[in-house]
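User: My collaborator sent over this chain with a note saying "see what the structure looks like." That's all I know about it. Can you take a look?
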Amino acid sequence: MTRLIECVPNFSEGRDLDVIRQITDAIEAVDGVTLLDVDPGAATNRTVVTFVGEPDDVIEAAVQAGHKAAELIDMSVHEGEHPRFGCMDVCPLVPVAGITMEETVEHARALAKRLGEEVGLTIYCYENAATRPERRNLATVRAGEYEGLADKLADPDWQPDFGPAAFNARSGATAVSARDFLVAYNVNLNTTSTRRANAIAFDVRERGRVKREPPLTGEIVRDENGEAVNIPGSLTCVKGIGWFIEEYGIAQISLNLTNIRVTPVHVAFDEVCDKARARGVRVTGSELVGLIPLGAMLDAGRHYLRKQKRSTGVADAELIKIAVRSMGLDELTPFDPDEKIIEYAIRDKTQKRLIDRSLQGFTEETASESPAPGGGSVSAAVGAFGAALGTMVANLSSHKRGWDERWEEFGTHAEKGKAAHDELLALVDKDTDAFNAIMAAWRADPEVRDEAIQSATRQAIDVPLRVMEVALESMDVMRAMAETGLSASASDAGVGALCARTAVLGAGLNVRINVGDLADEAERVRYLEQAAALEEAATKAESEILAIVGGKLSS
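Assistant: Without extra context I'll predict from the sequence alone. Here is the result:
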């Protein structure tokens, strides 16, 4: 899986568009990074920039942006409504896909170190990247703002985590963090009442509402320190308020979901629906402000299918469609997955993937004089067809009249089959990439050529070996469907098993032909033993599945 992190640096310049452009140009100059959004604010004199990519590329882009900000922005003359203490005021990293928060914390600290050492910025780490508990809160780290920074740096307890401890009047200080993905999300109501919208927002937001005695109209209840006591709302990691949108003539609940792993979008939507209904208000739809990770949309689609007691092992496009329709994400404006889902928005539209071709196009490309795609890609494709057949039988079985109570059983098999054919489809192109890597290694500088060839050869073995593993795993689905699925589709489970075995044996040939180029004898033996074990297991599984299918066809 691609490892993606998002970077959302805030720069203390929101009025000079030329300065902002130079900073964003520095970001876009780094290969592998996609600039998603630039949001300058004149009143705050601050610009929020959002870009995404693989961790190393994102860190490099952030360093270059820090260089440019330090060069162009003079904090000694800065004024604005937003709290700030540096030219690159904050720089949070956010895990998007294929990466954990713990890993993102390590990347954030690596970024902080580079900004301190290479750019010369004074760096404090906060939130998840904080090096000590008292620095987790950004407001605490930035207390006193730019004007109080010299005194803060003179305090032994506030020495920076990285970079110079001396006050730099031009650049100030920068706060670096790793935080969760924040989704700005609005829920539409069939009312124009801001008061009712606010009441619903207070019902759900974590902070809730101020406690009064008697309720609603009485005096504010305060604790022993004189602070107002709050009645918490029903959703954790959610901020919210109600407002009226004149453009659409409706009231909305405006939510910030600060950790969608704790409170996903679909959970927030359902809760607002429940709280609105209790107040005589109906939710009519919702809208996403900005982008959302693919996983969040797929989770929402699965959630609403489960509520319908339907199989969740369907294509990503179908899951997204179910999510959009269930939450009314297209009520106010069209919802375009290519623009609203991060992974789709940054996808290289110029890259010509084999799996994007028509079946005819893929076949004709295979038949051409080009050496790739070859047997490895075809083996992966055949394996994907086999896994898809097993998934199909599971989905059909989940809808059989009289089997309604078994929808979850078949849905579990369908999800396993879908995961297999998704990975096998990805391996179609990875096999060709591996071949191209070997060709490039042979053209490498003589000093590093041997090492490059060995590395590329391992890749050219690991990819078909993974095809073998995934195709074999998919045979569990075909076996289950041959045994317990629709009898009328038993032949499809059998064809799926035939395809899976073909994929295993075909990819095995690729492993064997590439193993010969490895210099390490022990490594060659290990790979060959792995391939032989997978081939034996696939042949055995195919025979057993076909025997089950044969029994169904003859009965």
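A starting point for your reply to your collaborator: The chain has three domains: 4-178, 183-345, 354-554.
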